[in-house]
Amino acid sequence: MKITENTVKMALRYKNHHISSLASQLAFDMLFSFFPFLILLLTLVGFINVDPIEVIGSLQNIMPEELYNLVSTLALQLLQTRNGNLLSFSLMFSLYTASRAFRAIRYGLNRAYNEEEDKNKIKLIILSVLFMIVISFMIIFVLGFLVFGEMISLELVQWLDLDIKLFYFIRYLRYPIGFAGMIVIFTAIYKLIPSRRIKCREALPGAIFTSIAWIILSMGFAFYVNNYGKYTDIYGSIGVVIVLMVWLQITSTTILLGGELNALLMYDKENNFKI
Q1: What's the rounded Cα separation, in Å, for the pair 245 and 174?
Q2: Burial class of residue 152, CB neighbours in 10 A (0-12, 13-18, 19+)
């Protein structure tokens, strides 16, 4: 069967392209990018008059309790503080640290396509900065729609004088739209980051796979940590760092596997099987 054959090919790619090692490297780079990037996003959101509880509540289902408590505490402080200096510092530091994660993702995706790395470091830095700006706005849009979708739908129904039943339909529609937003973000990653020119339709399968896999694995890991793996009880405060690293490892692995899937399907289409 085609599915079994592609599963075997993906397993070979996972082994031969050292996905586990690359994911660990990417997770380490993402660790340095995570909090500056979070501070940047939350500082930007902090300039909008919104309820902080609603903003951070959207993260609760996909994060382990220990990590969510850390992020929510930081979020509440930042969302209640509108500090222009903090935004400037976060912006500069986030751009610097994100460039490392960008290069790690690019290296992994280029390996999937057997592409040579671009030696122009200045070009890579500029690309990483531009890409991070685009992704930041896309994440804010998706998060904003998930958080404020209900309020927007109610205003829309009242403004257009529509049936209240339509409000409930639009309210629940925000989740599939949010999921579609995730697919768009991952499609942008798989299309724009590799050195090889990738069409949107070639980037889409990996984006769908990564979105579904990341949600399922994140929720599964959160359930395990919340119910069985009490890392903070065993390791104390460092347990939060361990949870964060494992979660970033899961995120990194799914991103790289999505790129491998796109490359596999592309070579399959060209009848040019490469591992």
Answers
A1: 30
A2: middle
The pair phi, psi for residue 21, each rounded to 5°, is: -70, -45
Q: Could you give the number of structural domains in the chain?
A: 1
| 77 Cβ neighbours under 8 A, 6+ residues apart | none
Asked whether residue 181 is assigned to any structural domain, the reply reads yes
Residue 249 lies in a domain: yes
The residue among 35, 62, 75, 66 whose CA lies nearest residue 178 is: 62
Q: Give, for all 275 residues of the chain, the pLDDT tens digit.
A: 577 888 888 999 999 988 998 899 888 888 877 777 776 666 666 565 555 556 666 666 667 777 777 777 776 666 566 555 666 666 677 667 767 778 888 889 999 998 887 767 777 777 777 777 777 667 666 666 665 566 666 666 666 666 666 666 766 777 788 788 889 989 999 998 888 889 999 999 999 999 999 989 888 888 877 776 666 666 666 777 788 888 889 999 999 999 999 999 988 877 655 55
Cβ atoms within 10 A of the Cβ of 156, count? 13
User: How many beta carbons lie within 10 A of that of residue 87, not counting itself?
Assistant: 18
**Domain of 235?**
2-269
User: Closest Cα partner for 40 from 91, 85, 103?
Assistant: 91
Query: Is 140 part of a structural domain of the chain?
Result: yes
Measured CA to CA, the distance from residue 153 to residue 148 in angstroms comes to: 9
Residue 87 sits at φ, ψ, to 5 deg, of: -65, -45
Say if 274 falls within a structural domain. no
Contacting residues for 232 by C-beta, under 8 A, at least 6 apart = 66, 239, 240
Quote the CA–CA distance of 53 and 45 in Å, as a whole number.
12
Q: What letter does residue 64 receive in the DSSP assignment?
A: -
- Cα–Cα distance for residue pair 28/132, rounded to 1 Å: 18
- What are the two backbone dihedrals, phi and then psi, of residue 98, each rounded to the nearest 5 degrees? -65, -25
